Amino acid sequence: GPNVITTPTAPHSFTVERLAQLRAAPPPAIAALPQPRVAVVLGGKNGVYRFTEEDDERFVGALAALGGLGASFMITPSRRTHQRLIRAADSATAAFPRILWDMTGDNPYPDFLANADQLVVTADSVNMCGEACATGRPVWVFEPSGGSPKFRRFHEALRSHGASRPLPVRPTTMEQWSYPPLDAAGQIAAQIERRWLRRREALPGLMASAS
């Protein structure tokens, strides 16, 4: 209906300004990593994505190929990440410069997003994929077995925007691309402001006709 606002991603707090502030002062451990830095954002099994052992093997091959192209890694799991997937990311990147967060201490996720030259995100999380696409940096989406029409529509929208591409089984080059960062919260806030101002302009006329 006319009162519905549709955005390609969920709202989040990673504005262009916040990401710029984080990039301006990277933690020493991140600054020491050679470029290109690849943030690896791990989700996990849910109601539609299965993450089979074969999927994990594909993931290992893709990450190892990126490392062979000169990438360093910043890896962060989430609460849903199963141990087998963490072990897969660990083994794939062990030979390369990296930070692998062990889920103790402060979460480095915001600094990983801001300071990544490219990002690899598992397809199972709308929020994590959307936040990665707030960076304006290339986003590779790893899709495990399964999926659903809803997730397919979501990922098709990200690809249509030019933000993401499917992660190749064996990347042979560090492709580069750019796109306008996706900021659903900003879009929603702008729509609310625009509609409120339009409503305020209409109120004097409504009040006059009521009297």
Summarize this, please?
The protein has 211 residues and is an alpha/beta fold. It is 45% helix and 12% strand.
Notes on the protein architecture:
The protein has eight helices and six strands; from the N terminus they run ααβαβαβαβαβαβα. With 211 residues, it is α/β, with parallel strands linked by helices. Strands 3-2-1-4-5-6 form a six-stranded parallel β-sheet, sandwiched between helices. Strand 1 (37-41), helix 3 (53-68) and strand 2 (72-76) form a beta-alpha-beta unit. Helix 3 runs parallel beside helix 4 (83-93). It is globular, with a radius of gyration of 20 Å. The mean pLDDT is 91.
Topology:
Layout: H1 16-24, H2 28-31, E1 37-41, H3 53-68, E2 72-76, H4 83-93, E3 98-100, H5 109-115, E4 118-122, H6 126-132, E5 139-142, H7 149-161, E6 164-166, H8 184-210
Helix pairs in contact: 1-5, 3-4
**Main sheet properties:** 6 strands, parallel
**SSE order, as H and E?**
HHEHEHEHEHEHEH
What is the beta-strand fraction? Answer: 5-15%
Walk across the major sheet and give the strand order: 3-2-1-4-5-6
Name the average pLDDT.
91
Structural class: alpha/beta
Helical residue percent band: 40-55%
The rough form would be described as globular
The rounded distance between the terminal residues' Cα atoms is 31 Å
Features:
six-stranded parallel sheet; 211 residues
